[in-house]
Amino acid sequence: MKRFLKSTAVALTACVMLNAPAQAQRVDGVVKLDILDGGRTATGTYLGALRLTLQDGWKTYWRAPGDAGIPPQFDWQSSQNVGDVSITWPAPEVFVQNGLQSIGYANQLVLPVEITPRNPAKPVRLRGDMDLGVCKDVCIPERLDFDHMLDANAARNPAIAAALAQRPFSAKEARVSAASCHLTPTADGMQIEARVTMPSAGGREVAVIEPGDPALWTSQPETTRQGDTLIATSEVISAAGGSFALDRSDIRITVLGAKHAVDIQGCSAG
User: Fold this and answer.
1) ∠ CA(194), CA(198), CA(203), 5° rounding?
2) How far apart are CA 153 and CA 46, in angstroms?
3) Are strands 46-54 and 108-117 parallel, antiparallel or unpaired?
4) Which residues 6+ apart lie within 8 Å of 141 measured at CB?
5) 12: pLDDT strictly greater than 60
6) For 44, left (φ over 0), alpha (ψ -120 to 50), or beta?
7) pLDDT above 60: residue 31
8) Which SS3 state, helix, strand or coil, does residue 50 take?
9) Long-range contacts of 142-146 (CB under 8 A, 24+ apart)
10) Residue 197 burial (CB < 10 Å; 0-12/13-18/19+)?
11) Strands 206-210 and 73-75, bridge-based pairing
12) Where is pLDDT greater, at 196 or 240?
């Protein structure tokens, strides 16, 4: 429970930094968003990207932002002829500042999106907004609007291709031979001990565990390695309190290393 309270306090502090002081510490032009076109794919979907360009020294956050980060939120509801939006996250960086670990991107992020149109015969308009936190010496909130008619005839975009190439390796690509999760009830929730058998991802490896349910909070895992096995231990707690169930097939483990990142979907009983 102490770990939960400490991490909750850190998250609340980050939220305060992202809201209350922002009016007094507003910095104009910190981040700019534009839409990149990648044309139509062979399967009929549209390939595009949200490109965030930040001023030097500023960073923003990954979908699982770590101890002191705020995850980005997207609103696509004002879009036209959009049936589904699939995001490919490039492998993020790990930042440590003032003893707090956060996970995200510095200076620029190209975030590929694949859009499935409701009606393949009609054009697609991507319109909405993105809420995010950006940090340097201070943290401020940003809401960025976008409105772009996608170009079905656009050529292959090198920036989108490069971002897709920076995605984490799959378990197969990273030669993961086993991934198990041992679940133990705690006073406040559930402890996950994930064991992943795989070659080193290089340097200091950081594991991130996502339980697959936005109503569940997960502490930053303690990550160690014993030979070919990476061990990550984390505690999961329900934000609403009370008991909950964990489906191992929904658990997502990402390993961030100096050479590459690895995305592991699901784990067996351990």
Assistant:
1) 95
2) 10
3) antiparallel
4) 18, 19, 22, 70, 131, 132, 133
5) no
6) left
7) yes
8) strand
9) 142/30, 142/31, 144/31, 144/32, 144/33, 144/52, 145/33, 146/33, 146/34, 146/35, 146/50
10) middle
11) unpaired
12) 196
**By the 8 A CB rule, do 81 and 56 touch?**
no
Tokens of 199: 């070659």
**Which pLDDT score is estimated for 24?**
33
Assign 28 a pLDDT band (cuts: 50, 70, 90). Answer: low
- The Cα-based distances of 221 to 64, 66, 104, 110, 207 in angstroms read 12, 10, 17, 27, 6
AA letter at 13? T
Note whether 252 and 264 are within 8 A (CB). Answer: yes
Beta bridge partners of 95: 102
Domains (range + CATH), the chain: 2-165 (2.60.40.1250), 169-269 (2.60.40)
- Residue 67 identity (one-letter amino acid): D
**pLDDT one-digit tens code per residue, 231-241:** 999 999 998 88
CB–CB of 261/221 below 8 Å? no
What per-residue confidence (pLDDT) applies to 27?
53
pTM, 2 dp = 0.87
Burial of 138 (0-12, 13-18, 19+ CB in 10 A): middle
3-state secondary structure of 182: strand
pLDDT tens readout for residues 94-146: 998 778 889 999 999 999 999 999 999 999 999 999 999 999 988 899 999 99
What's the confidence (pLDDT) of residue 240? Answer: 86
